[in-house]
Write a structure and sequence with these properties.
elongated, binds iron/sulfur cluster
């Protein structure tokens, strides 16, 4: 099956009623750059609800999450704080590695002074930080021209048939072509909300979706249903 392009007008009109509830995004609960990075690490392999719980627990104990404060914390204490986000052992190690890397370059101020490419390279050099985590951080801290791809965006893109592979760079590049640059952050969040409420992982609400006439997944499902209906009708005629 071939990839195809979808127009900006179509996406804009299909998502026009999707409201963004910022309080449901863990990043909105973080303030300083390192806190933003920690919030995105906490959201890896879980939903934002659990990540928010873990972030708030950590903030309650530390008041502010900075690299300098984190490197003084005991690993076990950090693991206990972030337990609500799951994979606390791996995430604690990543947070500590990130804190050390920030301190090594001169702290959060020095990080903010890096240009977006250098900042991305720096983040990707920390074990446990992948492209999605780096791009979400840079979108907020550096207003970088990146389009982060999370699990919702990957699923929607593949279902629509715009990109069939799950390749991060390919999916990100296609959304960068569709969405105007100044709206990357807004539409990154809108697509996530759309994935949470309409194009859900299980039982997507295709009948309510304004993209269904273009959607490869919907067309496939509809063809399967029509084929089944045809088979049932043939069987019932034979049995009559
Ligand atoms: S038609 Fe269904 S599968 Fe396709 S984008 Fe809409 S909700 Fe998702």
């Amino acid at each position: 099956m071939k990839n195809y392009m979808i127009s900006w007008k179509t996406i804009e009109s299909a998502l026009k009623d999707i409201q963004i509830n910022n309080s449901l995004f863990v990043v909105s609960h973080a303030r300083n750059p390192f806190e933003i990075l920690v919030s995105v690490i906490l959201s890896q392999n879980t939903n934002d609800k659990n990540a928010i719980k873990a972030l708030n627990k950590l903030k309650k104990h530390l008041k502010k999450i900075t690299p300098e404060i984190i490197i003084k914390c005991k690993e076990k204490f950090l693991e206990d704080c972030i337990r609500p986000s799951g994979m606390q052992k791996e995430k604690t190690k990543t947070i500590i590695r990130a804190a050390k890397a920030f301190v090594d370059i001169g702290g959060e101020e020095a990080f903010l002074k890096l240009d977006p490419n250098a900042a991305r390279e720096f983040l990707l050099g920390i074990k446990g930080i992948g492209k999605k985590t780096a791009d979400v951080v840079l979108m907020v801290t550096h207003k970088a021209d990146v389009f982060p791809v999370d699990t919702h965006i990957r699923r929607i893109t593949q279902r629509l048939g715009i990109v069939h592979s799950g390749n991060y760079d390919e999916i990100s590049a296609v959304w960068k072509k569709i969405v105007p640059k100044d709206l990357y952050y807004t539409y990154h969040k809108k697509l996530i909300e759309f994935g949470r409420r309409v194009c859900r992982a299980r039982n997507p609400l295709c009948e309510l979706c304004a993209l269904r006439d273009l959607c490869r997944y919907y067309q496939k499902m509809r063809n399967t249903i029509e084929e089944l209906q045809e088979k049932c009708s043939t069987i019932s005629k034979v049995l009559r």
